[in-house]
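Appendix B. One record, verbatim.
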Amino acid sequence: MITLLILGPLLGGLASFLIRSELMRRVMFLSVAAIHLALSVASWFFSPSPALNGWLAVDDLGLLFLTITSVLFFAAAIYGVGFLSREKHGDRLDYEEGTIFSNAPEAVFMGCLLFFLASMTLVVTSQHFGLIWVAIEATTLSSAPLIYFHRHHRSLEAAWKYLLICSVGIALALLGNFFLAGAVSEIKAGAHPLVLKDLIKNASLFNPLWLKAAFIFFLVGYGTKMGLAPLHTWLPDAHSESPSVVSTLLSGALLNCAFLGILRIHQVCLAAGLGGFSSSHFVVFGLISMGVAAVFILGQNDFKRLLAYSSVEHMGILALGTGLGQAGMFGSLLHAVNHSLAKAMLFFVAGNIFIFGKLNISNG
């Protein structure tokens, strides 16, 4: 089942480039989204068997974020088909000059969306830290063309900032993997792969200094992708310049994937008796994110940028709750569900306001 959850969107993305019929492509796109959602819901009742020697598995945290991702993508798929239909029929307006949306091929848009779903699914089902790193990097590469969909100079700037800043963060997270491997190498008896279950089991034997360094680099690296301040600078531009269907997935699903990456190393720190160290850093970054976002929200006139800074604030709330301990962790996960669903709805509404508001201005 895990393999199908990942390969289904991946193969669907490849098929979108080969299918010439617009109708068949859209049917395939919606079918893949529906099947992915059905499999995600089924995972609550029938636990999927691990794959790749335990490198892929669905635990409780992964199942929660998998379901959120799948629900949002299904809603985004339905919205996206309507969005593309408006594109096809020429309902185009401009930000400034005359042609609002680009004539970017529908196949590229749908293909990148499905690749994006496959990479996010790989993130939430990965149990190996190296594989998590690869999957999060894949989310960056698959979503960057979606940010540039409008082909506007501001879209180009947003996509470039997204690639550059997130790539720096991913590079720091790679160093975190190296430090984690250094902590594991302190164990003399045999080799221990960077699989979450094995790391938690042997965490008390790890070198605490190496493990602390690994946590810092994971927090800063994946925190960049999560949108924690002051590492959030890509997020307002990317969210505001993307089509609303893309903004929905960036804010409601992608940020959760980065958050999960940090939670994985936090689980190892808790097992190693370093929960106080990791929790204190969550609290600090959480408070900074909430404070920075509150300041910038007050000065926003663009409603999509306002929603983007709201996401920074809510990521801060997730980090703060995680740092406050077990009860706070439950609140963080509940808040992650609420934020994803509410923010998706708000971005869909924002897209409708933009399209129909501009149409009324043009017709008036």
